[in-house]
Fold this sequence. Notes:
The complex is a heterodimer.
Chain A: E1 2-5, H1 6-22, H2 26-38, H3 42-61, E2 71-79, E3 82-85, H4 89-103, E4 127-133, E5 138-145, H5 147-150, E6 154-158, H6 163-178, E7 186-194, H7 196-207, H8 218-232, E8 247-257, E9 262-269, E10 276-279
Parallel strand pairs in A: 1-3, 2-4, 7-8
Antiparallel strand pairs in A: 2-5, 5-10, 6-9, 7-9
Helix pairs in contact in A: 1-4, 2-3, 6-8
Chain B: E1 2-6, H1 11-15, E2 22-31, H2 34-45, E3 58-60, H3 88-93, E4 98-101, H4 107-116, E5 119-122, H5 128-132, E6 135-142, E7 151-165, H6 172-183
The structure holds iron/sulfur cluster.
Amino acid sequence: MKTIHTDTVIEAVKQMCIEANLQLSPDMKAVIAKAKQEEDSTLGKQILGQLCENLEIAAKEQIPICQDTGMTIVFVRFGQDVHIEGGGLEDAIQEGVRQGYRDGYLRKSVVRDPLIRENTGDNTPAIIHYEVIPGDTMEILIVPKGFGSENMSRIFMLKPADGIEGVKAAVLQTVQEAGPNACPPMVVGIGLGGDFEKCAILAKKALTRSLDEGSPLPHIRKLEEDLLKEINASGIGPGGLGGKTTALAVNIETFPTHIAGMPLAVNICCHVNRHSKRVF
Amino acid sequence: MEKHIKTPMTKEIIENLHAGDYVYITGTIYTARDAAHKRMYDAMLEGKEPPVDLKNAVIYYLGPTPAKEGQVIGSAGPTTSSRMDKYAPLLMEHGVSGMIGKGKRSLAVQEAMKKNTCVYFAAVGGAGALLSKCIKRAEVIAYADLGTEAIRKLEVEDLPVIVVIDSSGNNLYETAVHDYRITHGLE
Ligand code: SF4
């Protein structure tokens, strides 16, 4: 049994919100730098150069990488032998987000009601996904998600007969429609299997997997590689202005599904693919 | 072609801009995004004057992060323009002649651009820290209650943008990707 105080959670969540918005993870930075080297469109190379320069300024001067500092998505993996002291875990996470967006000078981009659209003023509520795991550790993963790219994401309730070709066609169509709106180069997160909502959550989670890893399943890893090649043959390029860097990576997560279905979610993220994790 | 221009965005300037030009803008521009557009649009439909003089004005689709002490503005990159498509034609009729954002525009917007001699620029999406360096002054001048979505008057110096749709209707999003595909044997 491990006891974690809510003050620890609040402080950690706050710091994660701030740092995720100021610095990308090393794998993200590396893949953007590599794309800049390899891009063969002049304008595309210039745009990727601006992105690298932007990352440097953001880190050095502590200015958020992008003005859309996102809606805050949180993945909690909660060990069943953990005890939270000092109040509710959910409240602590929301308070951490509130303090992070306030003290980190991050943009407040959340409205209370989807139709009335009054800003909540502190970027809460965050969207929190919980998973209970064995043991006495807790893991919190913070994902500030921009909506230029979120708006271009899609769900397809494919049929089993659609097969791998159906998956590819749906992904390529989504990327094509996203085009310049999603601030390419993109990272494409895919959830395949499960049901309607499971595939969407998997797709978001896929965005947070290190770009160095690749799926542990050989046939899915091959699909990731094939899709990346096909997406980059679209010519959409950096900023949607032509080039070979349309996507930086394709990450796929899978889950068992029903005999009658093959749900597919394509969560588009831009090159500002942010996440920050702590294990308690 | 690289060009340096100064606002106001007059007809003469616009007619010399072509899709694909890399342009550095200096002078006064205004920010407005979803909520400010809706409010201006509703006011105009009721026959009221918009809160800023839109004649030859450039609107930057931007909702910045808050400025820290000593900063002019926080991160300041473009938001997706298509969400403003519903409102843009009426704003052009009230004088707007330049728009800065990112992403595709509707056919109705493209038609209105030709009719009103207007230009659409893209700034690089996700380069808000870099772009903020070109903003020398920022002041909320209307709809302060909208927070990040308020209308701000900005003084910019050499703000780097790309002409995506010019006033003759040439669209770089279509031609650049098409040309890239042809020259790289992807068609
Ligand atoms: S899509 Fe990404 S890079 Fe583009 S504005 Fe939104 S958060 Fe920023």
